[in-house]
Each structure stands twice: as structure tokens, then as C-alpha cells.
């Protein structure tokens, strides 16, 4: 299936719409490797090991690809995703408690690729997610499991991506609100499930689904912004709970939750941006920690306009609205 926008070119689009080559094709790329100035530490030794392994991978990639820009294999992605909505191999058994996430990841990828979701497949997804909905509200990781904020986030977002009357009717909004209230804590935080752990992910999941389903109330999020703000530490980023080390994933979740609640201006935005950009590695190009590059980059992308709005006169803000 050929996409009408012909987005199969060797291209990365920057924020200003200009294509850019991969960094690894820059002749000065190797100069970005760590220089420890003769002071060797455990950290510097490990960093050099990482950079050497990456350099080997980059070298092989450059031998295989003559063009410096990557190719998005749209058709292969589409076929892979379409197949995943109907069948997954035994290797996915470990994600039995994350099945709404699989639906969301696949549907969101199709949405980003602007590929259609067949009506019959969409209906089947709706029916499956309806079986994941708990009798007491919220969604579980699979049929018969306990309601949990993470799969609730995934299920609600997946149903909203489908965007049909059938998908919207799946969500029991009254019981969903009851579930959110049941995991709300007196200090404004949320537990991931009844009797579960507290961290800033839960506040984001709750704010997202409450907004999407139009059940966001002052009572539901009373003191939540204050609690999230207490997770911003001296580094500038946000931790999972107050007093811990800042983390890319938690920084995204906390920042996004405050944006949803209209309270992002209460953050120390200058410190936040300083922390986020400081997470990028010179040689690798990505952000620190294997699983947090997306979260950290997404925070940076989502915060730029808000930071500009917070420093501009009202007249300039109004001119853009």
C-alpha cells in the first residue's frame, strides 16, 4: 500500500521542516567521544566501553548504507502492525498483563503512519478491550485481572484512536470516575491500583484518561499539582516520588500531567530545560538510560512553546492564539 504523502524518502525532518542527515555520518562524529582528561573513574571506563560498542555498530551501518539519511519502511511497518492486531507469537506471553498496551502501541503507530484501521479489526479491538474493563471501573491488563491505571491509560487512548461510536460506548465513564477516586490519595497523588505503589506515572495516567473522557473535576485532582511539583528536585528534573533522583520517564509524566491540569507554569521551567538538555550524550546522540530517550526528548519538545509563553508579554501570547 503506497501512502499518498510518499513519505518513504531517506529523510529526517527537523522542527523547521528541513531534512537532516544522521549524526554518525558527520566527519567530526568520532571527536565527540569522551575525553577523561587523564582522570579515569569507574563511570568513565564504562562510558568508553559503551561508546566503543556504538562505534562498531555505526561503522557497520555506514558500510551497509551509502546515504546518510534513514529510510522509513512504511509498507513493512504497516504489514507488521496489521498482523500484530490479529496474532502475536508466543514470545509476547510475558506481556499477558499488558495487552491493552499492545493494542495502543499498534493503533498509535498506525495512526502516526496515517494508515487506516479496518472496521472489522477496530470492532474486534473494541470488544477485546470491553472484556478488560473491570466491573468496578477502569481497565485491567487482560480479561479477569485487576483494574490498573497503566492499562486504563492504554485502553482509553486506544479506544479514542479508533474514534467510533462503538469504541466510545465501551467506556463506562461513571465507573471510571469511581475507579480514579478509589486510587486517589489524600496528599494529591495516585496509586497505580488499589493497594499499589505511588509514583508520578499514576498522576499522568489519571489526568490523561480523565481529560479524554471529560470526567476531570476539581475534587479528583485536588492537591495533585502540588504533589507533582514536590517531585521536581534540585537537578531540575522530576523523580517518581518526592526526594528521589530525577528520571526521564517521570519527568515527562509529571510535566505532561501539569500541562493537562494547566499548572505547568508552576514548575521551575528553566531548571527543567537545563536538566533535560543535559541528558543528551555527545557521541551517542540519544539521552541517558536505554528506556528514557523517548520520554526525555518528548519532554523537551513539549516544553519549548510553554517556556516561551511564560517569558513573553501577554500581547505576544495573545497574537499566537
TrEMBL record:
Cited SUPFAM superfamilies: Terpenoid cyclases/Protein prenyltransferases
UniProt keyword list: Metal-binding, Prenyltransferase, Repeat, Transferase, Zinc
Catalytic activity line of the entry: L-cysteinyl-[protein] + (2E,6E)-farnesyl diphosphate = S-(2E,6E)-farnesyl-L-cysteinyl-[protein] + diphosphate
One GO cellular component term: protein farnesyltransferase complex
Cofactors demanded by this protein: Zn(2+)
EC number, as in UniProt: 2.5.1.58
Prenyltransferase alpha-alpha toroid domain sequence ranges: 72-288
Superkingdom as given in the UniProt entry: Eukaryota
Pfam families from the UniProt entry: Prenyltrans (PF00432)
Class in the EC hierarchy, top level: transferase
Free-text comment on the cofactor: Binds 1 zinc ion per subunit.
Gene Ontology molecular function, alphabetical: protein farnesyltransferase activity; zinc ion binding
Swiss-Prot/TrEMBL GO biological process terms: prenylation
Quaternary structure annotation from Swiss-Prot or TrEMBL: Heterodimer of an alpha and a beta subunit.
Family to which the UniProt record says this protein belongs: Belongs to the protein prenyltransferase subunit beta family.
Functional description taken from the UniProt entry: Catalyzes the transfer of a farnesyl moiety from farnesyl diphosphate to a cysteine at the fourth position from the C-terminus of several proteins. The beta subunit is responsible for peptide-binding.
Protein name according to UniProt: Protein farnesyltransferase subunit beta
Species per Swiss-Prot/TrEMBL record: Dissostichus mawsoni (Antarctic cod)
Amino acid at each position: 500500500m503506497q501512502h499518498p504523502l510518499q513519505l518513504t524518502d531517506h529523510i529526517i525532518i527537523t522542527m523547521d521542516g528541513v531534512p537532516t542527515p544522521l549524526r554518525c555520518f558527520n566527519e567530526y562524529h568520532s571527536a565527540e567521544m569522551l575525553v577523561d582528561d587523564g582522570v579515569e573513574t569507574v563511570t568513565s571506563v564504562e562510558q568508553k566501553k559503551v561508546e566503543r560498542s556504538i562505534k562498531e555498530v555505526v561503522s557497520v551501518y555506514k558500510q551497509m548504507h551509502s546515504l546518510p539519511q534513514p529510510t522509513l519502511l512504511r509498507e513493512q511497518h504497516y504489514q507488521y502492525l496489521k498482523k500484530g492486531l490479529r496474532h502475536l507469537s508466543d514470545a509476547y506471553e510475558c506481556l499477558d498483563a499488558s495487552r491493552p498496551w499492545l493494542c495502543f502501541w499498534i493503533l498509535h503507530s498506525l495512526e502516526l503512519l496515517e494508515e487506516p484501521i479496518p472496521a472489522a479489526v477496530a470492532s474486534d479491538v473494541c470488544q477485546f478491550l470491553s472484556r478488560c474493563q473491570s466491573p468496578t471501573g477502569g481497565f485491567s491488563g487482560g480479561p479477569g485481572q485487576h483494574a490498573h491505571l497503566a492499562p486504563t491509560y492504554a485502553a482509553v487512548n486506544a479506544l479514542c484512536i479508533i474514534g467510533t461510536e462503538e469504541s466510545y460506548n465501551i467506556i463506562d465513564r461513571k465507573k471510571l470516575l469511581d475507579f480514579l477516586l478509589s486510587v486517589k490519595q489524600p496528599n494529591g497523588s495516585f496509586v497505580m491500583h488499589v493497594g499499589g505503589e505511588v509514583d508520578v506515572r499514576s498522576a499522568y495516567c489519571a489526568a490523561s484518561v480523565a481529560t479524554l473522557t471529560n470526567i476531570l473535576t476539581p475534587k479528583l485532582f485536588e492537591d495533585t499539582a502540588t504533589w507533582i511539583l514536590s517531585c521536581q528536585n534540585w537537578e531540575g528534573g522530576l523523580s517518581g516520588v518526592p526526594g528521589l533522583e530525577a528520571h526521564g520517564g517521570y519527568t515527562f509524566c509529571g510535566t505532561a500531567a501539569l500541562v493537562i491540569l494547566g499548572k505547568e507554569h508552576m514548575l521551575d521551567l528553566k531548571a527543567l530545560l537545563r536538566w533535560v538538555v543535559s541528558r543528551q550524550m555527545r557521541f551517542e546522540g540519544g539521552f541517558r538510560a536505554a528506556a528514557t530517550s523517548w520520554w526525555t526528548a518528548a519532554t523537551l519538545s513539549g516544553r519549548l512553546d510553554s517556556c516561551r509563553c511564560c517569558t513573553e508579554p501577554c500581547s505576544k501570547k495573545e497574537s499566537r492564539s
